[in-house]
Amino acid sequence: MKKGAISLVCLIGVTAVQAQQSFTLEECRRMALDNNKELKISEEKIKEEYSKKKAAFTKYLPDLSFTGTYLYNSKNISLLSEDAHLPVFSANTDGSMNLPSSVKGTTLNGTWMPLDKDGNPFNPKTNPEKIVWNNYAIIPKEAFEMDIHNVYAGVLTLTQPIYLGGKIRAYNEITRFAEELAKTKHNTNLQEVILKTDETYWQVISLVSKKKLAESYVKLLQKMDGDLQTMIATGVATKADGLTIKVKLNEAETVLSKVENGLSLSRMVLCQLCGISLQTRLVLSDEDTTPEPETTLPPADVNIAFNQRPELKSLDLATKIYKKKESMVVADLLPQVALTGNYLVSNPNSYNGYENKFGSMWNVGVAIRVPIFHWGENFHNLKAAKSETRMANLQLEEAKEKIELQVNQAVYKTNEASKRLISAKKNMEKAEENLRYATLGFDSGVIPTSNVLEAQTAWLSANSEKIDAEIDVRLSKVYLAKALGQDLKNKD
């Protein structure tokens, strides 16, 4: 039991340490990338396209296949419907038939001629079918009957493509472009995950700062409420002033509650992105000491975006794929040549008479296929393929226009965020100075409560504006980097 208790205490301690572990932005990004399902799917897509590329290369190599079959037939094949009778005779030296004495005949104009079945004389050289034979050779029906009840057959085929109109080469190029396209789409998904993680991370930091601000504001109002109650007791202030402070205090506590709820939900979203339990108390390293963001504008050139944006690379690869599809359609219009070799085995076989045993043979040859007329099907397919290529080119041009606009918008937003931060800092300094004077005046009894509340409200607004401006500066730089196609994974 002691060992079990010690283990339980250690487990609770480890869980507590994990729950309070501080995570940096880079660590959150890494966890999000490691646990994102869409990225895992795109990684599998890359593997799929790689395998397809390898499979396409095999089309250059010979194809070897075996086909076997067995048939049971209910009847045999017989070449004769009944027993056959063939006449028996000998041939003369001149090639004429030497008719036997059994054939009836008569002498006509000094020449012996046979009689047909009707007793009419005829010339046997011109009408041999009229001879009435008495001697026959019998051919039994069974001698021409073939046993095909059980038939076994197999063929081993070797096919080597020689010329297919460039279809194999085009197919290999398509699979190579498809693999590159899968990689660029994976990179696009990766940038989206990083961007979403950054947005959520800095949203949490923003809400943490606003929570601290709201807590300090509540404490300030609570102190002022206590001081005012003393002043009311001494007759220096009125109850109306006390009620005004209480209303402001209630409003501040409500705002604090909303900020706390928003912070809890934002932490859950970040936990979900990082692939950890939603109940984890995720503490961020920038919660206590957030470094001042730089307001300098990074270099922004549209040509950089044109060269680096993964979306443009994807559309360019799609255009190349459609172009190769045109080549495949053209290949269907051209002759196709292949070398073939076969080894055949069958039972029964007819290679040495008809035998009920296995016999085999082999052959080699060249096969050619020439398309002649298909009602214009291939020409229509070619037009459709060219239309797809033109659509891909138009999509690429449209994407470039939108990206150029996006880069300019990101530059404007970055400049605007920097100016807003500078202005917020100045307002913050003025609000703090105004609050300091108002507080001193209130403590001295020369400034009414309403003026102090106005100074506190202005101070709260200036602080909140400064927090939002700092977050906007950070995120606007991330948006600009994404618009330029820079690698967010290695970017602070």
In spatial order, strands of the major sheet run 2-11-13-14
Total number of strands: 14
Shape: rod-shaped
**Number of contiguous helices:** 9
Element order: H for helix, E for strand: HEHHEEEEEEEEEEHHEHHEEHH
What is the helix content?
Answer: 55-70%
Stretches where pLDDT is under 50 for at least 5 consecutive residues are 1-19
Q: Report the major sheet.
A: 4 strands, antiparallel
Describe this structure in words.
With 492 residues, the chain is of the alpha+beta class. It is 58% helix and 15% strand. It contains 9 helices and 14 strands. Helix 3 packs antiparallel against helix 4 (167-234). The longest helix is centred in the middle third of the chain and has 68 residues, at 167-234. The two termini are 50 Å apart.
Topology, element by element:
Layout: H1 2-19, E1 22-23, H2 25-35, H3 37-57, E2 63-72, E3 77-78, E4 84-87, E5 90-91, E6 97-98, E7 105-108, E8 111-114, E9 136-139, E10 145-146, E11 150-163, H4 167-234, H5 239-274, E12 283-284, H6 302-308, H7 310-331, E13 336-347, E14 359-369, H8 377-444, H9 449-483
Parallel strand pairs: 1-12
Antiparallel strand pairs: 2-11, 3-10, 4-9, 5-6, 7-8, 11-13, 13-14
Helix pairs in contact: 2-4, 2-5, 3-4, 4-5, 4-7, 4-9, 7-8, 8-9
Brief characterization of the structure:
This protein has nine helices and 14 strands. The protein has helices at 2-19, 25-35, 37-57, 167-234, 239-274, 302-308, 310-331, 377-444, 449-483, and strands at residues 22-23, 63-72, 77-78, 84-87, 90-91, 97-98, 105-108, 111-114, 136-139, 145-146, 150-163, 283-284, 336-347, 359-369.
